[in-house]
Amino acid sequence: MLDIYQSNDIKKLFKIICNILKKKKNIFKKEIFLIDDKILKKWIQIYIAKKNKISANIQFFSCQKYLLNILEEKNNCILKKNFSIFNQKDLIWILIILIEKKKIQINFLQNITYEKKIQFCTLLAKTFSQYIFEDPTYIFLFENKDYFNKKNSKKNLQKKIWNILINFITKKHKKFSFSQMLQFFIKNNSLKKKSSKRIFIFSNNIYKPLNIFILMILQKNIFIYLFEYVSIFKKFIWYNKNFQKKIDILSSKYSKNFLFFFWKIQKKFFKKPRKKIFDITNKTILKTIQKKILYYKNTIIPKQKKIINKIDNSIYFFHSCTKRTEVENVFKYLLDQFKKNPFLNPSDILITSLHIKKYFFYINTIFSSNLIKNSFLIYKKNKKFKTQENILFTLKNLLKLPLQEFKYHWVLNLLDLSLIRKKFFIKNNEISKLYALFENIGKYWGFDNEHFKKMSLPNLPFHSWEYFIKRIVVGLFLNTEYGIWSKILPYDVSTIQGRELLGKFINFLYILNNWRKILSKKYMLKNWIKILKKFVNEIFNITFKWKKFFYLICQNFFKNIKMGIFLNYKKKISINFLLKEKFLNLSTIKNYQNFFTGTINFGDLCTSHMLPFKIICILGCQKLIENNLNKKNFLTLFQYNKNIKYDIYKNLKHRNFFFNSVMSAKNILYLSYNIKKKLKKKPIFIEELRKIIKNNFYILKKEKKTSILKKIFFSEKNTSYLQFKKNIFFKKKKDKNLNFNCLKKSICVKKYYTNILYIKDFIQFWKNPIKYFFKNSLKLNFNIHQKNDSHLEEPFLLNSLQKFFINEKTLNALINKKKIPQFENYQKKSVLPNSEIGKIYWKLEQKKINKLFQKIKKKIKKEKKIKIKYLYNKTYLQGTLKNIYNTQIIRWTHTILQPKHIISVWLEHLIYCTMGYRKNSLLYSLKSEILEFKILNSEKAKKYLNQYIQGYYTGIKKPILLLKSGIFWLEFLYSHFKKKKYNKKKIYIQAEKNFFSIWNNNIIFPGEKKDLYIEKIIPHLTSNIFKKIKKTSIYWWSPILKYTQFIKKKLYE
Q: Superfamily for 318-381+595-695?
């Protein structure tokens, strides 16, 4: 017997389940629930445990897997052991072996590669599984001997392959077709004694033809309770009491034509179900639409329109141009709802999309970084789940060892995982020591000469890990005083702890290299299971806590290749092939849902469309149309048979997801979609809702029926993010306590008082105000070593840091009249590039520094120091000005001129002028650039100095957005507006281009948005922040541009 219950409220359906379970006398007997959704499974467990005070007697299974297991158990006498038609991976291995044994002979398979053959097998297995579950007519046609289609060669080819596959799977003395297997199941439908006599089904995936067929047969011996979420587009099944007798009559008539037999049953004996529908009482637009959908009333052409209140905002549509603006507008909308309704909890809100993972980056940045107070809105992942993600990520990287280049930062990143670190007895504190060690000892690539050959690189003896190990081993016996020994520069590790750490790290390197050699070879399928187990045990420290997780990884791999092992697949396979074809699929192992955590719920539409929430926000509604059209499969035959509707559920899947979420919204439904201006078409489902609202409701105002959409529902389209225009819907003033982007129009400075301010701290602050704020005020220091780019470790380039240290040492040696460092020492340290390239770099840098030294040499003869004590608002600026030659400040840098160099000399120049000295200051740089600072009156100098001192105290409390990008933007405008002939529009456009080139990436600078300190304050550049950066750069940098000039070259052109 089959009972169907349907409602728009899941809790009411759960109450019915609890009432049915309470009637059971023996509570220790197990109950079977068939649920595909893991979230619903959790919810039912919690609900039943609260109501009935027991949920341990319930067993949860996937609906399709459970029904297929019943079908396979009945056909065990027909099929061979371990064979399954319904498993796609098994079909792939069977097809591969049939092609290799040349039982399937096709002309185009002879001329293609081995990898393309396997791709053909995977695609063919997908089509066959699609036929089995969605349209068995094709399989019947393949099994019919008389069938042959001259026009369609695809059908004939697939018919041959299917018959060969069935003959291979079934036993020799019992050759059964797929339709005969199903008839055999009809005759032998008796269940075991221990099996339960009732099943609870809570799934929308049940309406596939094969699943319906199995349920029809099971109804004789089992009570089936089907719980459905109401939607207008669903078709329900029902039958009468004499159903089994008529099945037997039809099976005898249509035994040859099975599918005709199946559809006859569907037409004759399916009736409307006995429905139990629950009414809705509220009168909002959302509730009235839900009521009409619930009772199958005509919503498109109603008999009479209803008057609606203006204040009703139960349905809200929003159109945007980007995903970022979608998330921003949802965030603003939810903040308004929290203000209006203080009793609203974050757990009452659901934000969903067809693929919510695509929005996670914007959600994490906008929801969590905008407000420190609202950090409770997002659920933070558990440590266990984070480690699971890290394990899977590192395991993928480690399995690709034959393709890895063994760069030093990649090797050190592996040690970030605690399970690998503990295996090699390396502590967490010791990783920073290893980073510092490699800054001194050099950067390394491949392991040895053989590894370089495989990477198609020339031999680089001073950049290999083998040379690194030799340096340390020689350093244990010889000191650095001995110099080079047999072409090896020894590295002396002074401390015993440092030697132990390097010993552990070298052991880790040797094990990685050993596994690189093992994984680069091909092996049989049987051997790959043993290799994977050994690999996991040697690299990971598997504790009792993580045994189950690693067991699942190995078990998942075994499931995917067990059919190939059973069929004695003899060809050797590489690890790259297993990863490409997803036989080692690690993404299916992790199990995580951020529901039931007390925060805002995020989930995919396919898993969360039946869950009731007070506010439901659907993002990316346009994707419901795009994803409905699947990629074309050249083997599938569905496109040729247009008359048969092969899968009702598949055609209306996204429609049902959408309308189920409409039904599950209690108070508010928020619909958002992003479409470009060129595409004028709106999503179909939103257009349908628009028609329903237009045709059913109107606003009464001065006896005129006006469209409700213009008044309440649709906000005007917001323009693109790049144009920086405001959204018309959000005209209200932003609350200062809620939004960090609320930036004041004018720079207001509050006064803070301290006793002493040292000149060193004062200058250090203005070099980088944001970094100083994090380090000194918040006392946070981020580890930047782990964010190094890969191009910095190239063996044919000189790293910027290495260049800095070499130039500094050579310049200091020339000034102090000491020995210049030798070329060979740096080359043996693997700091310079290999062979002749390193010599060219060395000579070029030496020439540049000699030129700079020759210019400085004339000026720096007599050095003086001046002690300073300056009072401003009960604060003393105290310190000494060094390197003053002939009553003139002279500074130099052995790099390109940067804003931090300029502002440090500018502040010293202001202090110098306030003391009454009247001389220009000079700043020399590497590229023959001399920047001159003009003389200022003591009054002007005091004015500017007081301004910068007060800025120091505001910058400690609140970060000042003085960035390189804003400085470059201002300097470009300032230099071009000095000229008489100019075009304003072109200059402004070019200045903004300069700003974004430095913000994103530039030849000189790596890009400010990648800076960890700036990223914490500005996760996304908005129009308000862009204006703020401009204002701050004008306020703090315009005096520098006014009183400076280049003597030879301009800096920014």
A: P-loop containing nucleotide triphosphate hydrolases (3.40.50.300)
